[in-house]
């Protein structure tokens, strides 16, 4: 693989992993029509998907290309 492509995969992977962990740690909140009560959503599916895509991107950046003869 091209060196610049590997670096791109590595950078994108690190960003996606960080974003996934951030969205897992700080859940989204919803406000009900000017009420003081905040409802926290417990669904972390999107953060799991983003984190997994980050790990896949990092794994792709670590793949070595074909050896030169």
Commentary on this structure:
The protein is mainly alpha-helical. It has one domain (3-62). It has two helices and two strands. It has helices spanning 3-25, 45-62, and strands at residues 29-31, 38-40. The relative contact order is 0.25. The model has no long low-confidence stretch (mean pLDDT 81).
Which helices and strands appear, and what pairs or packs with what?
Elements: H1 3-25, E1 29-31, E2 38-40, H2 45-62
Antiparallel strand pairs: 1-2
Helix pairs in contact: 1-2
Write a brief structural summary.
The protein is mainly alpha-helical and 69 residues long.
Rg over CA atoms, rounded to whole Å, is 18 Å
Largest sheet, strands/sense/barrel: 2 strands, antiparallel
Overall shape: it is elongated
Structural class: mainly alpha
Q: How many distinct folded domains?
A: 1
Strand content: 5-15%
SSE order, one letter for each helix or strand? HEEH
Give the overall pLDDT as a whole number. Answer: 81
Q: Output the number of helix runs.
A: 2
Which features would summarize this protein structure in a list?
mainly alpha; 2 strands; elongated
